[in-house]
Structure formats: C-alpha cells, structure tokens
Amino acid sequence: MSDKLLLKFRIKSTPYGVTRETLKVLATELDTTETMVIHLALSRFAKEVLPTYEADDGPLSPPYFAWLKETAKTRLPKGKVISKKSLV
Q: pTM of this prediction?
C-alpha cells in the first residue's frame, strides 16, 4: 500500500469538494502548503465525524448492576451526613 493519494479537484467548489484555485487561496491565506491545508481539513473532518470515545458494551445487565450497587455499599463511607446537594 502506498502512502500517496491522487486527489482530483472539482471544476467548481461545492460542499463536497473544492477547486485547485480554492486550495491555493487557502494555502496562501494560512501561509502554509497545499498539503498542510488538506491535512488540516481532514483532521477537522475526522474530529467532527469519528467518535472520541471507545464504544462500550451497552447498558449494564440487571444482575451486574445489582452486584455493583451491593459492592458499592461496602465501600462507601459510613457516618452522619453533614451536608447534601442535588443536581436536580
């Protein structure tokens, strides 16, 4: 597999692609290379589209949730509640 990619430019700029002239203007405006402009665009697109977290296994099963609640009880501090706040 090659690390190079052929990029075909559009005849006119649209939401789905840009002309070579648009790329040149962006590179000049950002004072960088055309390659860097493409990398910046792809990086921003990746942040927008790709999840920023690993997918989990979904909701906890009822038995596991019950075990977790029971285990937490033994590890929580005991004693008089001095103050209590709620987010609701």
A: 0.58
